[in-house]
């Protein structure tokens, strides 16, 4: 039986008449990386703030480690690390000095500083002032702060936002290492599917406050249905013939996309036997990006 580190039931948040989160039922399994995906303004950050007890739900319940955030908030948060928006740091202090401040607040041992610096690969620059860091290094320092105290769950809200490709790669590799090397479950939010696809084991897609999909990455990939694409000439005669033979199709400009389940060989034979030129016929799978866009576009409608 799957152990859920995060479990919400009809989680709902309204700001006045605006419904930001609409009856969301999250299931985040232990030991994986859960990609919380959606366009900007979809409800990701509001959901995360409710998970951290920073915003009170209008309706519903949420549990972390099987405990309710309403009644056991402090006990829960001792087991959670988070980086929401930009990390907080003092630019005129070194990485080590910044972590020392956080360490004292949390009441953890000094050894924790060197441990988290090693995890985020900042040991070599621990005496360097943070104002001299790149944006990617600052993000890693923020993650180091979140890792102080050995949390079992790490929540990251758009951690690669604004980073250059090198910074994104650094954060991506770090996130992937956390469950494998340190047994930390990660929830990471993003509006970029390609980034989530590279790191996540499980995915939740949210838009307009509604959870549209939740499952493993393989379950999302199973929605990559293939369509038969045809390039025939003269095109209008081909469309007419397909219609007469009771086929459903979508005009895609240069190509004709066959709707539903069809046999490419049969379509090819009918077109050629009618004197039409079939210049191309092939199967095209929907990309994950297209599936994501279709889900979110339908939610808007």
Plain-language structure description:
The protein is of the alpha/beta class and 301 residues long. It has two domains: 214 residues, Rossmann fold (3-Layer(aba) Sandwich); 60 residues, Alpha-Beta Plaits, CATH 3.30.70. 37% of the residues lie in helices and 30% in strands. It is built from eleven helices and 15 strands. The radius of gyration is 25 Å and the shape is elongated. The model has no long low-confidence stretch (mean pLDDT 91).
Attribute tags:
6-stranded mixed beta sheet, 11 helices, alpha/beta, elongated, 301 residues, Alpha-Beta Plaits, Rossmann fold
- The secondary-structure element order is EEEEHEEHEHHHEHEHEEHEHEEHEH
Cross-sheet strand order for the largest sheet: 7-8-9-4-10-11
Tell me the total number of β-strands.
15
**CATH fold node name of the largest domain:** Rossmann fold
Q: Rg to the nearest angstrom? A: 25 Å
User: Averaging pLDDT over every residue, what do you get?
Assistant: 91
Instruction: Report the portion of residues in β strands.
Output: 25-35%
What is the CATH domain class of the largest domain?
Answer: Alpha Beta
Low-confidence stretches: none
Task: Just name the CATH architecture of the largest domain.
Answer: 3-Layer(aba) Sandwich
Give the overall silhouette: elongated
Distance between the termini: 37 Å
Q: Count of helices? A: 11
